[in-house]
Prior knowledge:
Elements: H1 2-15, E1 18-21, H2 23-36, E2 48-52, H3 79-86, E3 90-95, H4 129-136, E4 142-147, H5 153-159, E5 162-165, E6 185-190, H6 193-203, E7 233-237, H7 247-262, E8 266-270, H8 278-293, H9 312-323, H10 326-339, H11 345-368, E9 371-375, H12 386-389, H13 391-396, H14 402-407, E10 411-419, E11 422-430, H15 435-445
Parallel strand pairs: 2-3, 2-4, 7-8, 7-9
Antiparallel strand pairs: 1-3, 4-6, 5-6, 5-10, 9-11, 10-11
Helix pairs in contact: 4-5, 8-10, 8-11
Glutamine binds next to loops.
Amino acid sequence: VNEVYARVDAVEDKVQAFITLTKETALAQAAALDAKGIDATNVLAGIPIGIKDNIVTKDILTTAASKILTGFEPVYDATVMTKLHEKDMINVGKLNMDEFAMGSTTETSYYAKTANPWDLSRIPGGSSGGSAAAVAAGEVSVALGSDTGGSVRQPAAFCGVVGMKPTYGRVSRFGLIAFASSLDQIGPITRTVEDNALVLEAIAGVDVHDSTSVPQPIADFTTDIHKDIKGMKIAVPKEYLGEGVQAGVKARVLEAIETLKGLGATVDEVSLPHIEYGVAAYYVLASSEASSNLSRFDGVRYGYRSPEAHDLETLYTKTRAEGFGPEVKRRIMLGTFALSSGYYDAYYKKAQQARTMIIEDFKKIFADYDVIVGPTAPTVAFKSGDYAKDPITMYMNDVLTIPSNMAGVPSLSVPCGLSENMPVGLQIIGNQFDEATVYRVGQAFE
Ligand code: GLN
């Protein structure tokens, strides 16, 4: 824990990965653990971990990187936090992110501009940019992020670290500040594939507080992780290497595919014909769910309250006008519009239909194949400031990560080399609840 804070002191002014450091409580927890003695069978005991700031932490400021949660100290822990405490992992701080996890660059945060440790003039990706940057900069070896349309995998790819979005329902969302409830999952960001699997084992499991969490046998992603991948069937969708994928990214992914062949896997080209509707459908569905989820921030219950309010109406309107940033407002307006009675069938219902078609595409492939591979993102990390110029291009950058959220399937990003001296991520997608196979392929590749 001391080493974490020494490293934070050395690099944090440049990287700005954290919103809040929890030095006092972390050191107290470490001291208590030293006094108690570490259980040698628990490999996670005493390991420092950073937490994305949309995961609620009892008595510790939790902002979701929004002004509207100024001063919000939750009275309870998210289920993932309870599980980490049971393993004696130590929360060393809360990590920066895009406001309410809406974004791909971590630039919509109200609090800080996180830099990519590989090149400080570039963004770390998002929305879990603080989590990925903290791991890449060596501040922590493990962090938690959340992934609604790519927010664990894309920043992991951009920062050259490992990120997993588990199967929808694998990890409890209780205490994850909701963005789009049908898509959100919490996942680990780590330096190695095996560390990632260990942390996911710790946080996985059905939870009485989350009715969308799914009962499954005890999560075991590590027993078979070192087994070889001879004879495994890998599918490469042609849409994942098509137009818009940078040449350098494509080259690294093609090399990775050769490596997987060399390890004994068979590789075929396939098609996921409906993923071309993924981005459009996602931004309708995610914004619709967000417009409903974010209605709870009204100045009454949490955090910020406008000092200008003089009656109930202005309490709501002024608090929300002052408390939410522009990207969040854009999503609330888009979602409210899509759900309004005159437009519901044209947008929300259509988007749901597109989602069903994407789910069917994946089902067909997984009837014949063990995993799907492709790039995590079509580009390497871009320069800071690019997002503000062109939000639509930023939305398009999610084209390769969104389909996994739509279909609820697990997806891992592992580093597969450099382009423009920046890391490229290889995405490994598995069938529902088959994280074990996804990790095994990731481990073989690593
Ligand atoms: N970039 C996507 C968005 O802005 C995904 C965000 C996420 O996964 N939380 O919605």
